[in-house]
## 1
Amino acid sequence: MNFVALRMLTGDRSKYFGLVFAIAFCTFLLENQTSIFANILKRTASQILDVTDAEVWVMDPRTEYWEQTKALKDTDLTRVRGVPGVQWAVRLFKGNPVARTLSGKFAVAFLVGLDDATLVGAPRKMLLGSWERLREPDSVVIDKAGYILLFPDEPLELGRTLEMNDHKVTIVGISDASAPFVSLPVMHARYSEAVTFLGRERTELSFIVARPAPGVSAQELTERIEARTSLRARTTDEFMWDCIDYYLKNTGIPVNFGITIAVALVVGTVVAGQTFYLFTVENLKQFGALKAIGVANSRLVGMILLQAASVAALGFAIGTGMAATFFEITLHKVATRGIVLMWQCVAITGACILFVAIVASILSIRRVLVLEPAAVFRG
Amino acid sequence: MTSGVAVSCLGVRKHFGEGEARIEALRGVDFSAGFGELSFLVGPSGCGKTTLISVIAGLLHRTGGEMTVLGARLDGLSDRERVVFRRRNLGFVFQQYNLLPALTSAENVAVPLLAAGVPRKEAVEKARALLSRLGLGSRTSALPSTLSGGQQQRVALARALVHEPRLVVCDEPTAALDHASGKAVMELLAGKAVQPDRAVIIVTHDTRVFGYAHSIASMDDGRIVDVRRVARGARAAEAGPADSVHEVALA
């Protein structure tokens, strides 16, 4: 009887497409909104995640997230290096200088100062130039989006100059640094130069980044550092979640997105669930005829579940395809770069669609099970 | 042609609701239908005809009286056993055909076989063969929406017969059809459905088709008020009725 169930489902094309579209739209809406939300929150930790060499971050005990830094003492670096299990530890500077082009265009930037000797903390992917050129005096590497912001409609090329705190600096590389939470240029320079680019508001030693020695886990090392230095030490993942947590608790982002996602969830699930339920109700006479003919209730339940599973699977697949296409299109745009369809969001949406299908199926099954087969005689 | 009693009802009662809302649909019905016969149930709307065939078909539980259908006491069967009993032994023809609109004629006819677990290909082949015998060999792949009312009812009739049930229950099979289509359906019922080991019960208002009946039971207010044997109907079932027979009405 499976083919009968599927033919009942697809027989009325307009109803069938309406049902599939409702679930596809619900899927798209949920995956789209949850992914954008998750990716925007992830952006709050972009510069942390870009540092792939180190696994442990050390900071002032009162530092809560990336943007909030209080200068450490130079001796703190030595103390951290002295903690057993530290393979190496280097300084990292973070500041927000104003970068100005010769044409007068300017923007506040994220400036990351890398350890002079090792350049630990630089994003790996370079679009133009090389990290080694940072060893040249008064040089910076800028991310592509920042370059486009400061030099709109101009081709990517090295050698352009910027002015920061009365310093003329040369762009020696263009990187593919992850997009920050706010759309500011992301620049990297050597630590010793970065502190001079910021001016009087400098906070020299923002962070210490370290790598655990072989055999020591990052978690274990953070505990040791905190015990021995009284500084705050977090693994990269922990620090990322600190940032996300801070924005969740202290900004209106989660409320606004939460409302949108809730609306998407309610509207999507109600529309999809109701459409499927009505589909069954409209077919009650057919189910009644099948009952009268001698199709067992268990078989009818199987037919409804098959119909629900089929339409949910197809709608979910189409909706996910729509969401993937959307993110593929927006992925390469400057403003939305790096925002991708996250598998976690696909999984959560899948669970929601499954829930809708189950609820709609239960309601539909109930109607069919209580249906008196004699009703088919009533015209 | 008659070779025994297929359905026997003795004082069958059925009510719906309780208290002030209680409706006595059947008030002690005595009725029987023989194998090899077309047994008609006639009467005004609301007299209990449909309730009676629903009880006989095991779609409703009687609330009193005695009843055997094909030798079985349906009240002694579990719900599951009643479903299996219906699937094996009963065929249904509905006033509004109740064909599944998404299935072709042959697939619709095959539904009782599919419900019984017959493989799809085999079931559809058997359905096609039956449709050919009923004069619809060229419409086996047609959807119900492309068929005339008469053709749809013939498909419904094929669906009721394909699994060779011993009892066929028809509810107003000609009510939605014009004269010629109704006549064609009744001729098929009389010629193909009536078998020595099969009983056919037809609920109808359509006086034009009374001539096909072997017996006509008249109902009123939940009771059988009159039963008549119609010898002419028996001849018609065997030899095929003429127009004049088709139009015979019960005097």
## 2
Amino acid sequence: MSLDLLKRGQQHDVGPLAVVADRQIVACNEPAAAMGVRPDMKVSAALALCPLLKWRDRSPAGERAALADIASWAGQFTSHIALQPPYVLLLEVGGSVRYFNGLGNLMRKVMEGLEALGFAGRFGVAPTPQGAVLLARSWLPTSDRAVIDRTVLRERLLQLPVCVLENSGGLRATLEGIGADHLGDVVALPRAGVNRRFGPELLDELDRALGSKPDPRKMFTAPAKFETYIELAYPTANSEPLLFVCKRLFNQLEGFLSARRAGVTRLVLTFKLDHHPEPAVMTLDLLRPSDEALHFTNLLKERLARKQLQAPAERITLQVGEVVPLYERALSLLPDDPQQQGEALPKLLERLCARMGAQAVRGLRAVPDHRPECATVTTELQDGGPGRRTHSGEATLPSPRPFWLLTTPQPLREVQSVPQYGGPLKLLAGPERIESGWWDGADARRDYFVAETVEQSQVWVFRERRQPGGWFLHGLFA
Amino acid sequence: MSAAPLTAAVPPSLEEIAGLWRGDRLGHDEAAGIATGFAALDRELPGAGWPIGSLTEILTRQSGIGELRMLLPALARITQAGQTLFLITSPELARQPVLPNAPAIADAGIALTQVRIIRPASEREALWSLEQILRAGAPGAVLSWLNRATPAQLRRLQVAVKDRQVAPILFRPEHAEFDSSPAPLRIRLEAKQFRLAVHILKRRGVPASGPVVIDLPQPARKPRGNHANIRLPVPAGRAVVRANPASDVARPIETWTAT
């Protein structure tokens, strides 16, 4: 677990990594092991073997937080979760087996999901919580670590070596010294003697595992707020590994959200940069609440394709906006359900926004204002979304308006009082006088004409009535 | 030996043989398009309208001759049906940055709530967003202005739009006429004295015999004389009030085919 916290910040083993407690190696990854680094080695010795070794001090607080994060993620499988620090998470899955189509499928989902989060794990399934813990700690093959029947559980547990017990710490050598190698041997010993000799914890644990003693657990309640981070042992600004790491964060978020049947509309990724005081912040805004890690990943991919980080990131934090309930949608038998096509549009718009920025993807709204440049407003997609009608059958325009407006009117040359635009313009209609806006500082006093260019296309020009006057091109009929 | 009645062996009419298609007809069996609003043009287009699920190219020498006005009836219809209209305003759409003018678009009957403006920074991004829109396949139409698209890029778009309920319309410069293109429908527009000549360069079925001339709503009708009959207002304050000759915009659309 302590090593996983380091390893999950990278896509592949980039280089040697180790976790250290009291200047001693606790765990190391494969590249480090290949260089000869072993647990229980002094840091100085390991560095001598492997000068590039990156090591971090073990962080019990970080591990506790990670266990709680995994517990909130696991809320999608069951609502009965208990933590057993430092490394054990207990899920009461009896009620979920049918929903997930069998115990095998459920366990595969759990283990695959855990791997997608970047954590390695072992599972055990048993009718008693402690029994499951002991099975998970054993070296039995995968198929033997799932037991449903109590008598089978008893048989299987009694074959296990004493070292699987959590309270066997310093007692292992003594137990083996008196010939009690397996749990079965311990059970066969007189209880009073064992309790006197080894303390009550040993038999207590065994009784709870076998189910002869009740074992109530404190249920875990997931926090209402979601915030998590991953440290990158090898900081990078490359989008591919960043995306990979963020995907782990999104997977964690997906579990958290699906446990609540909820979605989010805003995700904030904060990249703490190497040697930079200011973190880089990326905000993904969604049009509709979503809980799909894949969708989040796609959006981030577009965003990263557009804008790279200016320095390697060493820590990525994921926060979310308001968590809103998702409405259930019935699955349809028919492939092209119009409802599903309706789903495609918000996702498409989100993709476009992620790549090009919200400024580049807009809705359109007409505003009653006589000044042509003020009559059009481009809107954020959220307020111009389908379903909300802002435009109600307006009166038809008093005179024609062009389809394209120049964002800034273009001054036109004038030859013998005839405006020129690729040749002399022929005025076809007008003038239409527009005088407005004296109250807000953007005063306009103009005479508009429809004119034809020498190429027979029609344009909208105006003559400025304020000093110094002159002709301007303002629109194109198309 | 009596002769068998010959008439029994000969089908009464060629028209009644199932599966027989005569070469002089348009392929009308394809998916119906979006009616253009111009009967003469509908007659000439396979699917009797702007095709859905395949590219349509419109080539013009310069913008502003009516290329959008020609599409408005169809666009008004699809937006009123709740479908989406995307405008990908490429930076090269005009010589200067432009924005769609909402009042004019609303006046043409297009539901503004269904319009989405995409303003890419480059033609590359325009192509990317066009492909995304086609792939997503949200029903509607996409208008985009492409100046430098290559045949390979167009082929990619044509593949993307296959079996989608989208009508993609690409505006391209006139010189693209001689480039090869996978678009099943290609049209060149020519301004003809306040009317629009539609040359169908390529369509499914038989080649078109001649241009279709359609009468578009004009912002201003052809003046009788030259522009001198419009009196310019005196710049310094004294306004000349005149009836607006452009009030005949709303006259009904007439169409006829040139011979």
